[in-house]
Amino acid sequence: MQMQKVKKWWWQLFVTMSVILVAGLGMGQVAHADTSLQKIKDKGVLTVATAPDYPPFESQVNKNGVSTDVGIDIDISKQIAKDLGVKLVIKNMDFDSILVAVQTGKVDMAIGCINPTDERKQSVDFSNVYYHGGQSFLVTKSNAKKYQSASDLEGQKIGAQTGTLQYSLAQQQMMGSKVVGMGKTPDLIFALKTNKIAAVGLEEPVAKAYAQNDHDLAVVKANYKTAEGESGPAIAFAKGNPELVAAVNKSLDKIAKHHWVNGYLKSAGKYMQENTVDTSMLRYWHYFYNGFLNTTLIAFVSVFLGIILGVILALMKMSKFKILSWPAISYIEIVRGTPMMVQVLLVYFGLGAVINIPALTAGIIAVSLNSGAYVAEIIRGGINSLDKGQTEAAKSLGLNHKDTMRFVILPQAFKNIWPALGNEFISVIKESSIVSIIGVGDLIYELNIVRADTYRGIAPIVVVMVIYFLMTFILTRGLNYLEGKMNHD
Q1: Which of 15-19, 101-105, 348-352, 423-427 has the lowest mean pLDDT?
Q2: Deepest in the core among 206, 285, 338, 487, taking most CB within 10 A?
Q3: Transmembrane ranges (predicted)?
Q4: What are phi and psi of 200, to 5 degrees?
């Protein structure tokens, strides 16, 4: 009998995962056909994905408290949009997500110093290479004499942004060296300055930009051997859009003919110098304020929706009808057994391929769905903790099952589980920071922007840490006060 239950559970899990996989693949197929030159012109909008933490190619400048995307890639995108006769819309997200955004139809193209490697060409199409700058290493000034060439770095720890050409080249050509991958360039720079790694592999203009704005850093030539076509960045598109690629290449040829990239580089350098004139955290208070508002919004809405979903799932799971209990059990187990990052990406790029939803909305949906699974188990535990005599007493008073749950069981269960719900609320505040990977401007996202703009590794982290602490501390005290009132009543 027990073996049959186990088989049923695994069959149920297999069916649920199969449905999710087929749905995801189906959504991906739909997305591939969504991007074309004519559709862009019909919309009147060119949507571009980028990761604004890689100056001078893309970064943000603080203009009176308003974040503005600037850099070589941004200027190139503006020229392409102008040539197409459409409006430019930029979507900021993590570098690891921008190619996925192209593949799933969230954007029309991705630009972010993306090198057209053979592996990437299997998933997306590329434009012509628009800049030939070469590869370099950043080292600390104190080690500049020790590491004067790439050969001196062999056997040392080399840092590179995950998913980049620099990461692959270091693995393939820096024999005996350990490659340390991180998602953000500011994190790599901080690791370098704290002697966690010996060097950071970067595009030459990026390395020079950091060295010019941080006198503790120096540039060393990488001298990598690169395949033809991999020696510089290109623009990525979804597969099967030759007309769009041709139109963009036409704009890139115009840019190259007039040597505009050099002008773009000077313009980006000017913005970088403006950012480093005043790197005090007070100058960036508006960034942290916006991050606080978005983090608070996500937490409050997600917990509210999570409680509603949790009640439904808990009642379904406790139902005697398998048609209700099995889906609830499957949902709870799958959500609790997978990382929230995966869930956020699935909602934004998967569901978003069918319904074009903003990043903030996708983030709230993903966090709500995740919270609902945990809240369901909390509520179920609260219901099971009540004495069965409560249900029997309600029946003796003539209450039906629905009224018993509404007026007797759930009010008492919520009183018992209040501390656990409070802990879930606090957890959501902290764990919702994962939505920054799809470009939601929460505290972590704004933290990375400030670090990239100011070249300061520690100060922005401390500010965000204090904000998170104050949020959770005040919330904890408020929840404790309400719990005391409830117990007193």
Answers
A1: 15-19
A2: 206
A3: 297-316, 345-367, 457-476
A4: -125, 125
CA of 93: how far to CAs of 32, 336, 424, 436, 443, in Å? 20, 25, 27, 7, 14
CATH topology of domain 135-221: D-Maltodextrin-Binding Protein; domain 2 (3.40.190)
Domain ranges of the chain: 33-131+232-277, 135-221, 283-488
Task: Tell me the pLDDT tens digit for each residue of 430-450.
Answer: 988 899 888 888 999 888 888
Residue 35 scores a pLDDT above 60: no
In eight-state DSSP terms, residue 129 is -
Helix axes 322-336, 359-384, angle to 10 degrees: 120
Token match 């950043």: residue?
A: 138
Which SS3 state, helix, strand or coil, does residue 235 take? strand
pLDDT, the chain, mean: 83
User: What counts of helices (H) and strands (E) characterise the chain?
Assistant: 20, 12
- Specify the 3-state DSSP secondary structure of 94: coil
Among the listed residues 359, 410, 353, 422, the one whose alpha carbon sits nearest the alpha carbon of residue 386: 410
Residue 98: other Cβ atoms inside 10 A: 26
Half-sphere exposure of 290 (CA within 13 A, CB side): 14
Q: Around Cβ 432, how many Cβ atoms within 10 Å?
A: 29
Instruction: Read off the pLDDT band of 29 (50, 70, 90).
Output: very low
Integer Cα distance of 214 and 375 in angstroms: 47
430 Cβ partners below 8 Å, 6+ apart?
A: 468, 472
Could you tell me the maximum CA-CA distance found in the chain, to the nearest angstrom? Answer: 88
Residues 6+ apart with CB under 8 A from 407: 394, 399
Rounded-to-integer distance, Cα 308 and Cα 36, Å:
41
The encoded tokens of residue 396 equal: 């003796």
Q: How confident is the model at residue 201 (pLDDT cuts 50, 70, 90)?
A: very high
Q: How far is it, in rounded angstroms, from Cα 229 to Cα 221? A: 19
Q: Which fold has domain 33-131+232-277?
A: D-Maltodextrin-Binding Protein; domain 2 (3.40.190)
What type of residue is 43? K
Determine the topology of domain 283-488 in CATH.
MetI-like fold (1.10.3720)
